[in-house]
Specification:
The longest helix has 52 residues, at 2-53. A hairpin with a 6-residue loop joins strand 14 (1188-1197) and strand 15 (1204-1212). Helices cover 60% and strands 6% of the residues. The two termini are 77 Å apart. It is built from 46 helices and 18 strands.
Length: 1357
C-alpha cells in the first residue's frame, strides 16, 4: 500500500515536471519565433536609412509611397504595432499589390505568395523595402478615369448599377471648378460695383458742396461771434453792462435812499405819499404771510386729528383685546369708544377720519357675542354696521346704545370676582392680570385703565384710550406749529421780491396779474423798492438788466418832475436812462445776438447803438456825476487844505470819468460788420436755433463725408447725421417763402430768393445722395454680400439635398445679381460693373446646369447606397426617358463593334397597320427562316453540350441570416430552391443534348463542368447542400465550388484606402466582372482552358428562376457565329418597371437620352475559350482593367469612432463591360453580340439585387414562372381547371423549355399547381424500338448460333 502511494506521488511529480518543462519549452519556442519575426522589422530602419542616404527614397517613416499618394494613414503608427500586427498589415499590402498589379518586379508578388510564412527572410526584407517605395494607394484615380469611359457603356445588367453611375466621381469636378470660377466672378463684380458706388458718392458730394456754398451758417455764426467780440471791446458786453449797471445802481440807490438824494421827492406831500406806498407794499406782504399761515394751520389740525384717531383705532382693533378669553366689558367698551368717535367725526365732517373709524367699527362690532337666538337683533346690528360711514344712513350712536342694551345683562354686577372652582381660579387671575397690563400699556402713563377687580368700568376704558390719543395729537400739533413758524419766515422773505417783480412786470405791461402804479410817486416808490430789494441783493451779473428794467418803467418827463426838483436832477435821470438803455443793448448783445428770430432788428439796434455810443458814454458819465452826493463839510475842508498845500504845484485834477470814450476806428469796423451781416441771406432768414443748427449740421456732415474717405465708421456717422437732418429741412423752405413775402426791401428779398434757390438745389442733391447712401448703396451692398455668401456657400456635395439647396442658392444669386444691376444702372460709369455682373449671372447659369446634371448622378449614387434621395429634384424640360425597341437599339449601336441577334421570332404587336399586298407572304417566309435558323442553333448547341465543349459558371453563395440564399425555398409549389432548379435544368440540358445527338434514350457521354463562384463563408454550406441532395443528379466530379470573395480594396469618398482594423484593409464586395480574377486566384482558369471547352456560359444571377443553364439555342448561336463574347438582352419595353424606378432620378435631357440608349442585359453571358485566354493575359498584365468606381455603403472604418460605417466606393467590374468594351483591350479581335431573348421567359429573380433591382412582390418570380409553365401546358394541349387564377409547375426533368409535354398534357385538365406527372413521377413514354432490316436477319442469326457454340465449348473445357 505504501509502495503504491509513493509510486503515485512520484508519478504526480513527474507529470507536473513534464508540464512545467513543456510550458517552458513552448515559451522559449514562442520567444524564438517572436524574435525571428522581429529581426526583419529591426533591420528595416537601417535598410530604409541606407536607401535614403543613397537618394533612392525620400526621408520619412515606413510607407513613403503610400504617404506620397495620400494614403499615409494606412501605415500610421507602424512603429507602435506589435510584430504580429505588422505581419498582418504586410500581408494585406502584398495582397493589395498583387490585386492592383503593383510590385510586379518582385517574384513573390508575381507568384502570388503574399503570406508571410511563404517568404524567406531575404524576401521579407526586400518586400518591405519594395512596399515602402513602390506601393501606392491611389488605385482609385485609375478607376476614376476608367469610369469616365465605362460610363458611356450601353450594355447594362439591370441588377447592377447603371453604367452612368461610373461617371459620378468625375461629374462633380467640373461643377466644383465652375463654383470656384463663380466665386472669382462674383469677387470681380463686387469690386467693380463698389467702385461705381464710390464714384457716385464722390460726384454727389461735390455737387452737394457746391449747392451748400451760399448757405453757410457757420460763417454767419462766426461773423456774429466776431461782432460780439468787437462790441465787447467797445463796452457792449455783458461784463461792461454789469459794471455800468452796478455803478449806476449804487448811484441811484444813493440818490433814492439818502435824505437829500437826487431821487428823493423834494416836497413833504410827495415824501408822505412815498411812505404810504412803502406801507401798502409791506401790508401786501403780510397778507401773503397770513394766507399761508391759515392754510398751514388747517393742515396741522387735520394731521393732529388723524394721529388721535389712528391711536384709538390701533388700540380698539388690537388682537389681544379680542381674544376669546378677553373680558366682554373690555370689548364692549372699545366698541362704544369707536362708535362714539365715529359719531363725532361725522358731525364735524371729518371725511378721512370718519372713514378710518367706520372701517374699525365694521371690524370689531361683528366680534361682539350677541345673545343667542335673537335673530332680529343680529340682523339689525348687521344692517346698522354695514351702513356705518355711509352718510345719512349711518347711526353710530344708536348702534352703541343697542349693543350696550343687548350685552349689559351678560356683564358682572359688582366689583368682586365671581365664584370659581379651584381649577379655574388661577386661570381667571392670570387672564385678569394680562388684560390689566395690556390696557394699561395703551393708556396714558400714571392712569391705569383696569383695576385689580374682575369687573371693568367701560367709561374709564374709553376715557383712558381717548385721552392717550388726545395727548399724542397735542404733541404732533406743537411740533408742527414750530416748523410752520420757520416756513412763514421764509414765505415773508420771498414774498416781497416776488411781489415787486410782479408789480414791475405789470408796470411794464409784461404781466397779466397786479395793477400798475397809477401815479408818478407810486412808480417812483415801486422802482426804488425794486432796486433796493431785488436788484442790489441779486448777483452782479444781473445788475445791468435789473437797472434797465427798473428805469425803463419811469417816464423821463412826468416822473422826474414828480420829484419836485430842478433841471439837474432831470438831466441826471435822463443820462441814467440813456446808460441803462445802452446797458440793456449790451445785455442783448451778450444774450440774444445769434442767428435766429429778431437777429435783424437786434443788428439794427446794435448799429444805432454803435452810432450813438460816444454820446451815450458822455451822458452816462454826466449822469453818474450828477447822481453823486455832494462832499461832506469835513471832506470839503480836507480837500480845501490839500488844495492850499498844492497850490503852488498847479490846478486841482478833474474827476476821472467812469466810462472811457470808445475808439472811433473800432466803432466803424463793428458797424461795417453789422452791415455785412444784414446782407447775408442766412441772417436775413432769421431761422430759429434748431433750424440754424440743422443747416450747420448739414454742412458739417457733408464736409465730414468728403473728408472721411474710406473710413466706413466715420462716413456712416456723418450719413446718419444727414439722414436725421434731411427730414427736418421742410420748415426752412416754408420760412424762406414767408420771409420773402413779408420783406419789402427788394435787395434783401433778392438775397432771400437766391438763398431759396440754393436751398432747393441742395435739398434735391441731398435727397439724391441720401437715396444713394440710404437705399441704393445699402441695398446694393446687402445684395453683393448676399451674392458673395451665396456663391461661397455653394459646396458641391455628394448629397441630393445639398445640391438642391445649391440650386436654390444659385437662383437667389441670379436674383441678387439682377437686383444689383438694376440698382446701379442709373449711376454714371456702371458699364464695366454691369459686364462683370453679367459674367457672374452667366456663371450661375453654367453652374446651375452642371449641378442639375450632377444631381442626377448623385441621386443615382444615393439609390446605389440604399438611401432615399431627399428630393426628386427639378428636371430639365424634356428630360424624359424614351425607350427604343430592339431594332432601333441595334441601329443606334451599329458602330459599337457588337452585333445584335434575335434568338426567336418576335411576334407582331397588336394594332399595327396591315402591310401591303404580299407582305403577309413575306412575313411568313421570314418566320419560317427564323425558325429554321433557331433549330440549327439548337442542334449546334446540343453538339457542343453533348461533347462537353461547354462549361457553366454560376455566381452564387450570397448569405442571408447565415444561410446560403440560393438554397432557400423560392416559393414554388414544389418548394424547390433556385439552386436546385438550376441544377435540374443543367441535367435536363445535358440529357436533351445527348438525345439530340445520339438519339432518344442516349446517356450523357461527356458531362460538362459546373463552376459555382461563392463567398468564402458560403463554400462549405454550399458543398454540404449539394452533397446532401446528391448533386441533384449531376456527377460530383463535374461540380466545382470555389471561393470568390472580393480582392480589390474599398475606398473612401476621397478615394483613399480604408482600414477596418489596425492591420486590415477594407475590401470591395465581389462584382460579376471579377469572376475571371476569382477563377485565376482559385487556379481554375488554367484547368478550364485546358479542359478543351469551346466556351463558358456565365450566369450572374443565382436567384433567376427562369434561367436556362447550358441553353442550347444561345450556345449554338454563339458557336455558329463564332462569338467571343455575348450577352442575353431584352427589349426595354419588357422591363418597363425597371426604367420607371429610375425615371424620377433623371435630371437632364442628356441623362434621359443615355438611359434610352441602354440595352438591358439579363445576367446570362457567353465567352469563348480564345476570348478567355486573352482575358487571362490581360488580367495578368493589368489587374485593374475595366475597373470602375461604384458607390459602396457600410464600409467599416477603424475610427474614430471605432467600427463606424461610412460610405465610399468599391472597385468593381461588370460582365457587360467584357462584352461591350473589351474590343480594344484584348490581344486578338473577337466577335461580340447582344442576343435578344424574351424577358418574361428567361428573367425572374426571386430577391433581386436591391437597391438596383427589386421584384414587385416576394412571390413575383414564382408567379411568373408558374404562368410560363401554364402557357407551356396550354400549348401542349392541356388546360387548367381554374382558367382565371390557376397555375401549374413543370419540373425541369419533364421539360427544359416547354418541349415534350404533348404526351403528358394532351386533353388533360390539371386541378392542382403541383401535379405528379408534371413533376416527373410518371413513367416516360416508351422509346420506339428500331428493328434492323430483314435482309440482315439471316447473318445475324448465324452469328448468334456461332457465339453460343463457342461459349458451350469453352464451358466443357
Amino acid at each position: 500500500m505504501v509502495a503504491a502511494t509513493e509510486l503515485g506521488a512520484v508519478g504526480a511529480f513527474a507529470y507536473a515536471a513534464w508540464q512545467v518543462a513543456g510550458g517552458w519549452y513552448r515559451h522559449k519556442a514562442g520567444g524564438r519565433k517572436r524574435a525571428q519575426r522581429a529581426e526583419v522589422f529591426e533591420a528595416l530602419p537601417a535598410a530604409l536609412k541606407q536607401a535614403t542616404e543613397q537618394g533612392v527614397r525620400k526621408a520619412g517613416d515606413f510607407g513613403r509611397a503610400l504617404a506620397d499618394s495620400g494614403n499615409g494613414g494606412v501605415v500610421a503608427g507602424w512603429e507602435r504595432l506589435p510584430p504580429d500586427a505588422r505581419i498582418a498589415l504586410v500581408e494585406e499590402l502584398l495582397a493589395l499589390a498583387a490585386a492592383t498589379g503593383q510590385l510586379g518586379h518582385m517574384k513573390a508578388v508575381r507568384q502570388g505568395r503574399t503570406k508571410w510564412a511563404q517568404l524567406s527572410d531575404v524576401e521579407r526584407l526586400e518586400l518591405l523595402c519594395a512596399l515602402d517605395g513602390g506601393l501606392r494607394g491611389d488605385v482609385g484615380a485609375a478607376a476614376k478615369a476608367e469610369g469616365a469611359t465605362l460610363a458611356q457603356s450601353w450594355l447594362w445588367q439591370v441588377t447592377e448599377p447603371v453604367p452612368l453611375l461610373a461617371e459620378e466621381p468625375v461629374r462633380g469636378e467640373p461643377a466644383a471648378a465652375q463654383a470656384g470660377a463663380l466665386c472669382k466672378a462674383v469677387d470681380a463684380a463686387d469690386g467693380a460695383v463698389k467702385d461705381v458706388l464710390d464714384g457716385a458718392r464722390k460726384a454727389q458730394l461735390a455737387g452737394l458742396q457746391a449747392a451748400l456754398g451760399p448757405i453757410n451758417v457757420a460763417a454767419a455764426a462766426k461773423s456774429i461771434d466776431t461782432l460780439k467780440a468787437a462790441c465787447g471791446e467797445l463796452g457792449l458786453s455783458r461784463a461792461s453792462a454789469d459794471k455800468a449797471g452796478g455803478a449806476l445802481l449804487r448811484a441811484l440807490l444813493g440818490a433814492a435812499l439818502a435824505a437829500d438824494g437826487a431821487l428823493r421827492p423834494a416836497s413833504v406831500v410827495a415824501q408822505a405819499a412815498q411812505a404810504e406806498a412803502d406801507k401798502a407794499l409791506a401790508a401786501e406782504v403780510e397778507g401773503v404771510v397770513a394766507t399761508a399761515r391759515e392754510a398751514k394751520t388747517a393742515a396741522i389740525e387735520a394731521a393732529a386729528r388723524g394721529v388721535e384717531v389712528s391711536h384709538i383705532v390701533s388700540v380698539a382693533t388690537g388682537a389681544s383685546q379680542w381674544s376669546a378669553s378677553a373680558p366682554l366689558a373690555l370689548k364692549l367698551a372699545l366698541a362704544e369708544l369707536v362708535l362714539a368717535q365715529l359719531a363725532g367725526a361725522e358731525a364735524k365732517g371729518e371725511g378721512v377720519v370718519a372713514g378710518d373709524l367706520a372701517a374699525a367699527a365694521k371690524k370689531v362690532v361683528p366680534l361682539l357675542p350677541l345673545p343667542a337666538g335673537d335673530e332680529e337683533l343680529a340682523a339689525k346690528v348687521k344692517d346698522m354696521t354695514a351702513a356705518l360711514g355711509g352718510g345719512e344712513g349711518s347711526t353710530p350712536a344708536e348702534l352703541a346704545q343697542l349693543l350696550a342694551a343687548a350685552l349689559e345683562g351678560q356683564l358682572p354686577t359688582d366689583s368682586r370676582e365671581p365664584a370659581a372652582t379651584p381649577e379655574h381660579a388661577v386661570v381667571r387671575q392670570v387672564v385678569s392680570a394680562i388684560f390689566t397690563r395690556v390696557a394699561t400699556a395703551h393708556a396714558r402713563p400714571g392712569a391705569p385703565l383696569l383695576g385689580a377687580s374682575w369687573a371693568i368700568d367701560r367709561a374709564e376704558v374709553g376715557a383712558a384710550v381717548a385721552g392717550e390719543g388726545a395727548r399724542r395729537a397735542a404733541l404732533h400739533r406743537t411740533s408742527a406749529l414750530e416748523a410752520m413758524a420757520k416756513e412763514l419766515e421764509a414765505v415773508r422773505a420771498n414774498a416781497l421780491p416776488e411781489l415787486l417783480r410782479a408789480k414791475l412786470a405789470a408796470l411794464l405791461g409784461e404781466g397779466e396779474e397786479g395793477e400798475a402804479a397809477a401815479t408818478s410817486l407810486g412808480r417812483l416808490a415801486l422802482v426804488t423798492a425794486f432796486l433796493r430789494e431785488v436788484a442790489l441783493p441779486g448777483p452782479d451779473a444781473a445788475l445791468g438788466g435789473a437797472v434797465s428794467r427798473a428805469l425803463s418803467a419811469l417816464s423821463a418827463d412826468e416822473d422826474v418832475n414828480a420829484l419836485g426838483a430842478g433841471g439837474a436832477q432831470a438831466q441826471a435821470v435822463a443820462g441814467a436812462r440813456a446808460l441803462a438803455a445802452q446797458a440793456a443793448l449790451a445785455s442783448d448783445v451778450a444774450a440774444r445776438l445769434e442767428l435766429g428770430p429778431g437777429a435783424v432788428a437786434l443788428l439794427g439796434r446794435i448799429d444805432a447803438g454803435l452810432e450813438a455810443l460816444p454820446a451815450t458814454t458822455d451822458a452816462a458819465n454826466a449822469a453818474i456825476r450828477a447822481l453823486a452826493p455832494p462832499p461832506a463839510p469835513a471832506a470839503a475842508a480836507a480837500e480845501g487844505e490839500e488844495g492850499a498845500e498844492g497850490e503852488g504845484e498847479g490846478e486841482a485834477k478833474p474827476v476821472e470819468d467812469a466810462f472811457p470814450a470808445p475808439d472811433a476806428a473800432k466803432v466803424a469796423a463793428a458797424r461795417a460788420l453789422v452791415s455785412a451781416l444784414l446782407g447775408d441771406g442766412v441772417v436775413l432768414l432769421e431761422l430759429g436755433q434748431a433750424d440754424a443748427r440743422r443747416l450747420a449740421v448739414l454742412r458739417d456732415a457733408v464736409e465730414g463725408c468728403v473728408g472721411a474717405g474710406s473710413d466706413g465708421v466715420v462716413l456712416n456717422r456723418h450719413v446718419t447725421a444727414l439722414k436725421e437732418v434731411a427730414g427736418q429741412l421742410g420748415g426752412i423752405l416754408a420760412a424762406l417763402d414767408a420771409k420773402i413775402a413779408e420783406t419789402s426791401d427788394e435787395v434783401r428779398a433778392g438775397k432771400l430768393r437766391a438763398m431759396r434757390e440754393a436751398a432747393v438745389s441742395a435739398g434735391a442733391k441731398l435727397q439724391e445722395f441720401l437715396g444713394l447712401e440710404g437705399s441704393t448703396r445699402p441695398g446694393v451692398l446687402g445684395d453683393l454680400t448676399a451674392l458673395r455668401d451665396l456663391a461661397y456657400g455653394i459646396k458641391v456635395e455628394r448629397k441630393s439635398a445639398g445640391l438642391e439647396s445649391c440650386l436654390i442658392r444659385l437662383e437667389s444669386a441670379k436674383g441678387k445679381a439682377a437686383s444689383v444691376m438694376a440698382a446701379i444702372s442709373r449711376l454714371p460709369g456702371a458699364e464695366d460693373a454691369a459686364s462683370e455682373l453679367m459674367v457672374a449671372e452667366e456663371g450661375c447659369e453654367r453652374l446651375g446646369a452642371q449641378l442639375r446634371a450632377y444631381a442626377g448622378y448623385v441621386r443615382l449614387r444615393e439609390v446605389a447606397l440604399g438611401a432615399q434621395p431627399a428630393s426628386a429634384g427639378t428636371a430639365e424640360e424634356g428630360a424624359d426617358i424614351e425607350l427604343l425597341p430592339g431594332d432601333e437599339l441595334a441601329a443606334v449601336h451599329e458602330d459599337s463593334g457588337v452585333s445584335f441577334i434575335d434568338l426567336y421570332a418576335t411576334p407582331a404587336k397588336e394594332g399595327e397597320e396591315e402591310e401591303e399586298e404580299g407582305g403577309k407572304e413575306g412575313e411568313d417566309d421570314e418566320d419560317e427562316e427564323i425558325e429554321t435558323k433557331t433549330e440549327e442553333w439548337r442542334g449546334a448547341g446540343h453538339k457542343a453540350i453533348a461533347r462537353g465543349r461547354v462549361a457553366v459558371v454560376l455566381l452564387a453563395g450570397a448569405l442571408e441570416d447565415g444561410v446560403v440564399r440560393a438554397t432557400q425555398d423560392a416559393g414554388l409549389p414544389s418548394t424547390k430552391s433556385p439552386l436546385q432548379l438550376f441544377a435540374e435544368r443543367l441535367v435536363a440540358s445535358q440529357r436533351l443534348a445527348a438525345e439530340g445527338v445520339a438519339g432518344p434514350g442516349a446517356g450523357v457521354a461527356t458531362p460538362l463542368d459546373w463552376y459555382i463562384a461563392a463567398a468564402a463563408a458560403s463554400v462549405a454550406p454550399l458543398k454540404a447542400f449539394l452533397q446532401d441532395n446528391a448533386f441533384f443528379g449531376l456527377s460530383p466530379g463535374q461540380v466545382h465550388v470555389f471561393a470568390a470573395d472580393g480582392h480589390l480594396p474599398a475606398l473612401s469618398e476621397d478615394l483613399q484606402l480604408v482600414l477596418e482594423g489596425p492591420a486590415k484593409l477594407a475590401r470591395s464586395p465581389r462584382s460579376s466582372g471579377d469572376v475571371w480574377s476569382a477563377l485565376r486566384a482559385a487556379g481554375l482558369m488554367r484547368r478550364l482552358l485546358a479542359s478543351g471547352v469551346a466556351g463558358v456560359e456565365v450566369h450572374a444571377l443565382e436567384d433567376n428562376l427562369a434561367a436556362r443553364p447550358a441553353d442550347p439555342v444561345f450556345i449554338g448561336a454563339c458557336v455558329d457565329r463564332g462569338l467571343g463574347a455575348a450577352a442575353k438582352v431584352a427589349d426595354p419595353e419588357a422591363l418597363l418597371p425597371v426604367y420607371e424606378a429610375y425615371a424620377p432620378l433623371v435630371a437632364t435631357r442628356d441623362m434621359a437620352a443615355a438611359f434610352g440608349r441602354l440595352v438591358p442585359a439579363l445576367g446570362t453571358y457567353w465567352f469563348s475559350a480564345p476570348f478567355l485566354r486573352d482575358v487571362d493575359a490581360l488580367l495578368a498584365e493589368r489587374p485593374l482593367a475595366l475597373c470602375r468606381l461604384t458607390p459602396l455603403a457600410g464600409i467599416t472604418q477603424r475610427g474614430p469612432p471605432a467600427g463606424a460605417k461610412v460610405a465610399g466606393y468599391a472597385l468593381s467590374r461588370a460582365l457587360t463591360d467584357w462584352v461591350a468594351h473589351s474590343g480594344e483591350l484584348l490581344e486578338h479581335e473577337h466577335a461580340r453580340a447582344a442576343v435578344f431573348v424574351a424577358a418574361d421567359e428567361e428573367f425572374a429573380p426571386v430577391w433581386g439585387a436591391p437597391p438596383f433591382f427589386t421584384p414587385d412582390t416576394p412571390g413575383a418570380a414564382a408567379e411568373q414562372l408558374l404562368l410560363l409553365h401554364s402557357e407551356w401546358v396550354a400549348a401542349a394541349g392541356g388546360a387548367l381547371a381554374d382558367e382565371e387564377e390557376g397555375a401549374v409547375e413543370v419540373a425541369p426533368c419533364v421539360s427544359y423549355a416547354g418541349e415534350g409535354l404533348e404526351a403528358l398534357c394532351e386533353g388533360r385538365v390539371f386541378e392542382d399547381s403541383y401535379d405528379l406527372d408534371l413533376q416527373g413521377y410518371a413513367p416516360r413514354p416508351a422509346a420506339k424500338v428500331v428493328l434492323p432490316s430483314p435482309a440482315l436477319l439471316g447473318p445475324l442469326a448465324l452469328a448468334w448460333v456461332g457465339l453460343a457454340v463457342a461459349r458451350l465449348a469453352a464451358g466443357k473445357k
